Each structure stands twice: as structure tokens, then as C-alpha cells.
Hints:
InterPro entries: Aldolase/citrate-lyase_domain, HpaI, HpcH-HpaI_aldolase, Pyrv/PenolPyrv_kinase-like_dom, Pyrv_kinase-like_dom_sf. Its cofactor is a divalent metal cation. Keywords: Lyase, Metal-binding, Pyruvate. The model has no long low-confidence stretch (mean pLDDT 96). The protein has one domain (7-237): Phosphoenolpyruvate-binding domains (TIM Barrel), CATH 3.20.20. It has helices at residues 7-13, 28-35, 53-63, 79-87, 101-110, 137-144, 154-158, 160-164, 176-182, 192-207, 219-228, 238-254; strands at residues 18-23, 41-45, 69-73, 92-95, 146-151, 171-174, 211-215, 232-237. By secondary structure, it is α/β, with parallel strands linked by helices. The radius of gyration is 19 Å and the shape is globular. It has an 8-stranded parallel beta barrel, surrounded by 7 helices.
Amino acid sequence: MPAPKxxxxxxxxxxxxxxxxWVALASPYAAEVVAGSGYDWLLIDGEHAPNDLPLLAAQYxxxxxxxxxxxxxxxxGDTALIKQVLDTGVQTLLIPMxxxxxxxxxLVRAVRYPPHxxxxxxxALGRATNFGRITDxxxxxxxxxxxxxxxxxxxxxxxxxxxxALEGVDGLFIGPSDLAADMGHLGNPAHPEVxxxxxxxxxxxxxxxxxxGILTLDPVQAHDYRDLGADFLAIGTDVTLLVSATxxxxxxxxxxxxxxxxxxxx
Length: 266
């Protein structure tokens, strides 16, 4: 049995736009439901959703093979945690709060086996090798792991040229909500100053030849980000979709007016 290819990594390398959705209900059953909805990728959120490693792995298994590529966002770029989640079979990681090139360099090493990195060898115990049945996993894993780093602060933006230049960084994902907070616009990722920073960040990422990613819950903003060159874009979350659909159903039945809401991130 040959080592699996990473279709998401191949797509962003070939400049094929990838549409995604956030998965934050912390439920393998819900993740499986969403996996049939036709998105190119689904982000299983281990940073803000109440997930632990077994639950992340269960959601990954629920999504894999159903048409959408599962991406896992860890709560932090910890080397030991990265090793564990890769051994469960995850091929694409999003690591939040990357502010320096030193952080980025360490993360590249964490996802790679020696001599190019420091990932510990033990995948035969896990799903990554189909429990030892994929015999060429060690030889091919480095090529198929996709590492995306999240830039969500002024410090990260200042270091974006150095970070994007690193071999082994496949894409950079700008986090508008935390970036807005860091810039003094908490709850307002659509602020003109934040948008200008995103435009500048996108241009610098493109110059380095790396993929540009972002998330928004606002459809108008989503089209704006796509027009700005987003290569992979998440346009919603399962949590907010569930809230809006259940509330809308009740309001429509009772004939109630829809309450006004403002976009405040997620």
C-alpha cells in the first residue's frame, strides 16, 4: 500500500482555488455530515473549539475519504503535539499565532523527519501508516505534509517576508479577527486599516510564491478576499451556520423580524 498523496497541497501548488469551512462543533458525527457538503477542505479547530487529540483524530477519520480534505488547527505549535497529530494520519496543519521567523523555522523542523527535521519516528503505531501497512510512509511523509502558518498580529506581518521565504512553509493564513484586535480594532476585522494590512500581507505572500489563506463569515467580504487573491478561503463555520439556521426557522414560523447583527469575526 503506497503512502497517500496530499490533494490540498497539490492544489495550492498548482494555483487551484480551494474553498473551505470551519468545523468547530467538536463532533465526529457533525463533521461527517459537513463532509458531504462539497467543500474542498474542512478545518477541524483545535484552538477555539473544545477538542483534544482523540477527538481531533476522530473528526479527521469522519471527514477523510468523503470529498473534503481535513485540515487540523492545533491550539499551539508544540513539537510533541505536532508529532502526535501527524501520527494519527493528518497531512495538513494550520498553526496559529506565528509571530517570528524563528517560530516558523522550528515548526518546519517539527513536521519533518531527520535529517531535515526533528519529528520522532513512531508512525507504525498510528493511522498515518495504516498501522504499519504503508511501508514507504517514512520515505514520503516529508513531501506530503502541508504546513500552513497563521499570521494574526502586527509582529507576524512585520516578519511575513522572512516567514514566507522559508522552504517547508506551504502557505500563510491571515487571521483577521486576532489581527484586528492587535491593531486596536477588536471585533471589527472589516476595518479599513485591517483590510489594508491584509492587502499588503497578501501581496508579500504572493511575491514569495506561497499560498494565501483567510477566513470570513461575511459573504461580501469573502468575495473581496477572493478578488484580492486568496488561494484558499473559508466562508463560514458549522457553529454559526447551525445557529443562524435554527434561529431563522423559528423566526420565520412565528413571523418575527430578523434582528440586526454586525460582523465581528468568529
